[in-house]
């Protein structure tokens, strides 16, 4: 049998699998975009170098593809997408109108901010939504995510690997954060976006999207919501209850149905991952989510 490390980047017993297979990830993903937008230079990098304003779902699904490949994909797939992302970033520049200076998109400071805003949002949405993680498991998740950060060009040792380290990082960076015109437009847009062409059939249901966008906004840290001031405050218990209901609803969907939200390439990657693990002796009858149950792993590790 193949070695597990040759099959998937992160093993099924990792905390990363528990978090990344949870459907609260969609709230975490949009929350992460809203949080990232508070860094002026990072926000201008997105604004100047992407089609985010025209296709926010596309960016979210491309992020989901990257996260999926560096979690459930093979090491080869993870290395390939890492090289692709680093190559794209290496060629892009950001013009700062405040200083007139030009910056690289792959500046380690910017990459670190994007990583921390993203993974902390995934973790917060999952834990607040009801995924039972201990403090030790939360620390372990951030520790495991240091490996994911290396695929975009960060050094392992420069990335927060515990909740305490993540809190210290945000405390350090907060004085540099502010709401630019681009950030204000972005957070409004994320609460009421235009649908991409391949999702236009969902347009009649677009008014139902606003509660989702608002939910993502309300899961932001209090200090971030205070900076934005985009919506009136509501009780935290209400937000938590709504997040738990959202998570419960999406988690009830069968994996083949749920996977349709991803890009075709992502669905193919997930299918290939299930096949590799099944061939290695894992019980994939309940999909990848079923593999977080120790009973569905081989009695003897594949070797």
From TrEMBL:
Ranges for domain ER-bound oxygenase mpaB/mpaB'/Rubber oxygenase catalytic: 17-239
Highest taxon listed in the record's lineage: Bacteria
MF terms (GO), sorted A to Z: oxidoreductase activity
Coiled coil regions in record: none
Protein name: DUF2236 domain-containing protein
